[in-house]
Amino acid sequence: MTGAEIVVQSLIEEGVEHLFGYPGGAVLHIYDALYKQDQLQHVLVRHEQAATHAADGYARSTGKPGVVLVTSGPGATNAVTGIATAYMDSIPMVVLTGQVPRPLIGNDAFQEVDSVGITRPVVKHNFLVEDIKDLAVTIKKAFFVATTGRPGPVVVDIPKDITAHKAEFSYPRDINIRSYSPTIPSIKGHSAQLKKAYELILEARKPMIYTGGGVVLSNASEQLIKFAKLLGAPVTNTLMGLGAYPANDKQFVGMLGMHGTYEANMGMHNSDVLIAIGARFDDRVTGNLEKFCPDARIVHVDIDPATISKNVKVDVPIVGDVGEVMDELNKLIEASDQRLESAALASWWEQIEEWRAQDCLKYNAKTGTIKPQFVIEKLHEVTEGNAFVTSDVGQHQMFAAQYYGFNKPRRWINSGGLGTMGFGLPAAMGVQLAFPGEQVACVTGEGSIQMCIQELSTCSQYNLPVKIINLNNGYLGMVRQWQEFFYERRYASSYMESLPDFVALAESYGHVGIRVDKPEDVVPALQDAYGKYKDRVVFIDFMIDREENVYPMIPAGAGLNEMILI
Amino acid sequence: MKKHIISLLLENESGALSRVAGLFSARAYNIESLSVAPTDDETLSRMTIVTSGTDEIVEQIQKQLNKLVDVVKLIDLTECSHIEREMMLAKVEATGAARDEVKRLVDIFNGEIVDVTDTTYTVELTDTCEKLDNFLASLSSIKIHEVVRSGAIGISSGENILAC
To answer: How far apart are CA A259 and CA A142, in angstroms?
Structure first.
C-alpha cells in the first residue's frame, strides 16, 4: 500500500466516517486515495479554519473524535485557530497536515511551515512522521492520545514523499505508550480520597455543586443527576458544562461566572462546601480569586491532576474520570443512611430561593424593538428545547447560554475557552452532518458570522440545513458593552459599517434569507425556518435592539457577590 | 521562592526538548539552567532543569511536565538526598599577582587549570552550583574573561533509582 492509502485505511480502521478538509499540493496523494474509496466521506470546507471547527462541532455533539485533513503551509496555519479552540475546551480531534517532502524540510520550500512547531503549544501532542513504517502506528497513537485521559487535539504531520512510498499495512489493535498512561492513577479515584470527599460533603450545611465541561466530555450527566438528587444540593454549570444538568430541574440555579445568575454566584460565594466536578476554576468563573468562595472547603474531581489547585487551592482533590468518581461517590452515599442535615439544607434553599426571586435574567420585552433574549426564548419554544445550538463569541453567545435552557448534554456547542469568533457556522455543519434529522441552530451576530461566512457554500454542497440565528445589532456587541461601561462610550472600532444584505447573500448561495425587524415577526420566522424550510439552510437576520447589554455581569476584579444587576 | 532541581527521563525524540522549553516559556515559569543528553538507553534522554518558584508554582511545573506525552518519569531531586554537579570552564586574567592568586583559589576549590597562556588561565571546576558561584565570587579582584557553565545535573543518593 502507498502511504496515502495507509492514511486512508487507518482512518477507516478507526471508524472515521467524516473527514473535514481542504486539498493542496502536499496532500494530493492522500486525496487521490480518498477518491478511490467510498467508506469515508470527505467534506470540503471553504477555509481550513472551518475544517477544524466543523470537526470540533462533530466531536462535541457525538463524543467521537473529529478528524481533519489539510495541506502544508497555509493549510496548517489556517487550521491553528481551530486546533487551539479544541485544545482550550479539551475536544478530541486528530488533524492530519501535509508536509513538504522530507528532503525539502528546512529549506524554506514552497508551502513549508514547521507545523509541529507552530501547533506545539495548542495540541495535546503532535507527531512528524519520519518513516513510512511509523505511519499507521502514529495515526493509532494520535487517536489514542486524543481520546483518552483529558481529551485534546493531536496533529500528525505527514511529508508528501512518505505518502507516495509503499509499505505493508497492518493497523495495530492496541497501543502502549510508555510515557503516557492516562488511566493511572485509578480512573475511579483514590479510595481514601473518595472517603474524605464523602465525609466532607456530608458535613455541608450550604453545599454547592459546580460542574463544567468535564461532565459533558465524560458522558456523566446521569451520574451527576443522581449525585445531585441524593444530596438535594443546588447545581450550577459553567458555560462549558451547560446541559449536563437539566436546566428545567428545580435544583439547577443556572450558569455561574461573569454572566451567570445571581443565585448561582451568590450560592457559590456563600457556600461552605463546594463540590467542583470536571471544572477548572477559569477566571471567567471565579472572578477575583482573592474573594472566591471565602468560606468554602472544596472537593475537586478532575481527570487532569494539573487542573487541581492550579487557580484555587482545594481541600480534597480526586483525580479520575468524573463519571466513574461520581459513581463511586453515589455508591458511598447510597450505602449509608447519612444525608445532609435537612434543616440546614432547607434554610440554605430558602436563601437560594430568595436570590432566585431577584429574577436576574428579567428584561424589558415591551420596547417595540426585538430583544435578543426574546429571540433565544422563542428559539427554545419553537425547537421545544431540543435543538443543537452552536454559537460564536460575544453577547449572542451569552444570551444563548442564559436563555435557551439546555436540558441535555452535547446540545450546547460553543468555544468557551479560546472564545473563537467564526466557530458557530462550521461547528453547526459538523453537528448537522452527525445528526442529519435534528434541528441545528447557529446563534451568531453580524460580527462573528462574517468570520466564517464562506461556509454557507459548504452547507449547499452537502445539504446541511442549519438555521442561522443572526442577532444583528450593527455593533460588535460585547466590545461595545465594555466600551460603554469602562471606556465612557468611546466605541472604538466596535461599529460594523458596510454590512452586507444578509438576506441577499444567503439567497446567492441558494439558501433562504429572512429579515426580521419587528418583535411580532420573530416567532413566525422561526416557525418557517424549522417548518416549511426545515430542509433548507435558513439565514434569519434579526434586527435587534442595538444597545442591549448582557446582565448580570461581574466586572473585572470583583468577587462573585459583586454583580451588576440590570 | 526556592530552588528546585527537576530531573526528567524523556523520549529521545526530535521535538521533546522544545516541548519542555516551550512549556516553561508559555506558562512563564523560571528556568535557571537546563541540560540534556541521551542515557545508556539511546531511546531515552535525561534532562535536568533547575527552576525556582513558590511551592504552588513548582507543583504546577511538575504536573505540567508530567502531562507532556514525551515525559516518562519525573523526580524533584531537591525533595530527596541527592548528588548535584555542575561543570564550569572559566577563562580568567592571570598576570602579575593574579597568576598566583588564581592558582591558589583553584587548588582550594579542587579545580584544575586546563589551559595556560602568558596572560590567562582556563579553569575547570566541577561541583555544586553554589560552589561554582562561590568560586566566581572569590575571584572578586581578578578579571574574568569568559564563563561557560553546563547547568546542573543530579542523581538521587543511595540505592534509589529515579526515585526519592
So the answer is: 37
